[in-house]
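hey can u check if this looks right to u? its 238 residues, i copy pasted from the old doc so theres a chance i mangled smth
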Amino acid sequence: MSANATAEQIAATNGFEDLPANVRSLTDLVSRQDAPMQDIAKLICADPELTRRLLWAANPRATCEEEYVVTSVDAALMRAGIGCALLLAITDPLIRAVKRTFQTMLAVDLKNVGPGILPALESEHVIGEVAFDGKATGCVHLRLSPACAKAAATTILGFAPDDADLNDVIGELSNMVVGNFKSNLCDAGLNCKLSPPKIQRTTEFKLRAANGGLAQRTGFHAPDHDLFVDIIVNPWNG
């Protein structure tokens, strides 16, 4: 893969799969805003992965299930509301995109884990940010340690990157994963457009959502590869 590879080329290499029927059903259900909470809970309870991720989101400081304060789907939805269920649904393709990207491009099998399980990136790290605007507004942050970002760029390019090469690769990877996220938003009737990716270095690691918005952090782990993906979204902007 060259330094000039486009996001579309990377996405084509990955060959994204269709969303599972249960995720699409959940997205369609909660995007209406007036869906009965019991219907949403029933759908989530029927899927162990959706249940697991909802409880992660409802217990952001927990490092294991034994530390959960919120332990049921009903309690999580009562606490976080319908917006959390929509965030759960539209996050699914992003998680799939990150895992598939690292497998295809880097031969790395990432496992998504609760963010409290991984150590925070307290020193300076690399962020790839892509914002989206429309009926749904917000942004996605791909957060990597400098070592992880450099290893990823070296594998993709075939040589040790300088700062410009590294920025190009992380930008394209960010474009690819957020492009898939945008597709799911549009499928749910939440049309939006993407901004060009921004690459920055920062020591800031707090997850913040704007008024009326939702935020979720997902951790990903593999040997020598720990990273985080933050989603910040107002799903009913217009």
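The two ends are 39 Å apart (CA to CA).
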